[in-house]
């Protein structure tokens, strides 16, 4: 079957990177941070004023720091924003040790924050980045002021059918097989598949934004480590799902002390909306923003609503935001996730 014969549902199921409209949005700056065995690309916005509390944004599987470019300017004057490309994604090269596990990514975030001395931060995470941020908040509470999770990839017993193709990447050989089967797909087809999978309404992507996303797709598919980073990171999520005991992600969610904002989309095809109720019960000090028409990347589809909910979180917990919340976990541990479909609303739980 040629690429032109592929049905829309086939391309929509393709587990490929979600890209944003532009490489560098107006007002953004890029820099490279070099750490032993690790190089990270960091996207930032010059703070509107000195003394603002820092914020750090962590993207999802196949994404990049660009995924936060719609949200960050809405928080100018409130936080000092930085978004990083996880190792092997965006403009960050693979880690020297090849560790793409959730713990490996969490270690990269922790090392960056420790080296920069930016903690405690308002920590944001989407999808894989939500699992990573949950782990960071659990093992290093001194680094986290508040936690905002957009469709966090926390373990589900009953995975949605639309999420299965992404999970299959974790199986050895599947990524190479998929690469062969999809070799005739154009970057435009792949990009339409990704937006169809990740957006509640793909029509919210402008024509200009879509063309820029196609160009970014072409660039990233040329990277020699692209499929390896995707495969190993997907495997890392699956491994984290099967980890039990005190190191399980749900157990770690219960240990998070930071005030937490949970954002779930009613049209999310990768993280089930029903998980919102479980997450609200797991995080001890949480509030829920339910967006019935949003997909997997609410911060890209509905950045104004996410920004407003975050501002409400900060205003409610202003005293907590000014100080580090509790003592860090031991170094060994630090290295070693309701159904309100009817309307957009927030719920607060303390």
Automatic annotation (TrEMBL):
Domain AB hydrolase-1: 56-301
Biological-process GO terms, alphabetical: acylglycerol catabolic process
Bias (Basic and acidic residues): 336-350
Keyword Transferase in annotation: no
Signal peptide stretch: none
Positions in coiled-coil regions: none
GO cellular component terms, semicolon-separated: membrane
Keyword Hydrolase included in the entry's annotation: yes
Residue ranges with Low complexity bias: 321-335
A Pfam family matched in the record: Abhydrolase_1
GO molecular function: monoacylglycerol lipase activity
Annotated stretches, region: Disordered: 321-350
Keywords linked to the UniProt accession: Hydrolase
UniProt-listed SUPFAM superfamilies: alpha/beta-Hydrolases
PANTHER family: MONOACYLGLYCEROL LIPASE, MONOACYLGLYCEROL LIPASE ABHD6
Annotated protein name in UniProt: Alpha/beta hydrolase
């Amino acid at each position: 079957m040629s690429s032109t014969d592929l049905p829309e549902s086939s391309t929509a199921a393709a587990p490929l990177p979600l890209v944003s409209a532009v490489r560098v949005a107006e007002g953004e700056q890029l820099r490279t941070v070099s750490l032993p065995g690790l190089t990270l690309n960091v996207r930032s916005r010059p703070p509107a004023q000195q003394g603002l509390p820092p914020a750090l944004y962590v993207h999802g599987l196949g994404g990049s720091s660009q995924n936060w470019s719609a949200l960050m300017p809405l928080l100018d004057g409130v936080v000092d924003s930085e978004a990083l490309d996880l190792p092997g994604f965006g403009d960050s090269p693979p880690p020297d040790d090849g560790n793409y596990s959730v713990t490996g990514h969490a270690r990269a975030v922790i090392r960056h924050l420790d080296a920069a001395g930016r903690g405690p931060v308002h920590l944001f995470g989407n999808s894989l980045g939500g699992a990573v941020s949950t782990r960071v908040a659990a093992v290093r509470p001194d680094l986290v002021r508040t936690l905002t999770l957009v469709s966090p990839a926390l373990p589900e017993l009953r995975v949605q059918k639309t999420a299965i193709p992404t999970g299959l990447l974790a199986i050895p050989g599947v990524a190479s097989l998929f690469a062969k089967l999809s070799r005739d797909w154009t970057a435009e087809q792949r990009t339409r598949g990704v937006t169809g999978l990740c957006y509640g309404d793909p029509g919210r992507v402008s024509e200009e934004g879509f063309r820029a996303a196609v160009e970014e797709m072409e660039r990233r598919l040329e990277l020699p480590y692209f499929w390896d980073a995707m495969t190993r990171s997907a495997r890392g999520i699956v491994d984290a799902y099967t980890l039990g005991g005190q190191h399980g992600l749900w157990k770690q969610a219960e240990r998070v002390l930071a005030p937490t904002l949970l954002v779930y989309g009613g049209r999310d095809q990768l993280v089930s909306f029903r998980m919102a109720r479980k997450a609200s019960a797991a995080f001890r000090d949480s509030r829920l923003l339910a967006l019935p028409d949003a997909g997997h990347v609410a911060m890209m589809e509905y950045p104004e609503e996410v920004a407003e909910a975050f501002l409400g979180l900060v205003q409610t917990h202003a005293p907590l935001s000014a100080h580090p919340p509790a003592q860090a976990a031991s170094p060994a541990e630090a290295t070693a996730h309701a159904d309100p479909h009817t309307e957009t609303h927030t719920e607060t739980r303390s």
